[in-house]
Amino acid sequence: MGKAQKYVLLGDATYPLQDWILKPYQEDDNLTQQQLQFNYRLKRAHSVIENAFLRLKARWQILLKCDDCSLELLPTLVLACCILHNVCEAHDNPFNEEWLEGTEPSELPKPCQPAPASMEDGRAEQVRELMCQYFETCGEG
Question: Which parts of this chain are annotated as the region Disordered (predicted)?
């Protein structure tokens, strides 16, 4: 019996489907209502993630200038900002909406072309199908 997968990354259509990368179903007229709901929930999760990164970069604008940092310091800097940001968010430290003015939502670098089908993991479709079924049973959200 295999080890239970606890976490997955969310990808878009350009990423290969793996048992640790969830991506939406290919949009076409043949999608079931359940698959459309899955795609909708994945899109909502992406927007939450984008908003979190936007707030992180707005609060700690040094992250906008990381090209000024040495590569050795960069992981520590990002980790420190994430920890401090989470502490601020957990303790309802006021977030100044004006901070967002200097921060543009930006797409994270990602592949331009969809991954070849040969990179996809056949077992991953079972994981996506189970998540799709779970989303259907856990109600609206």
Answer: 99-118
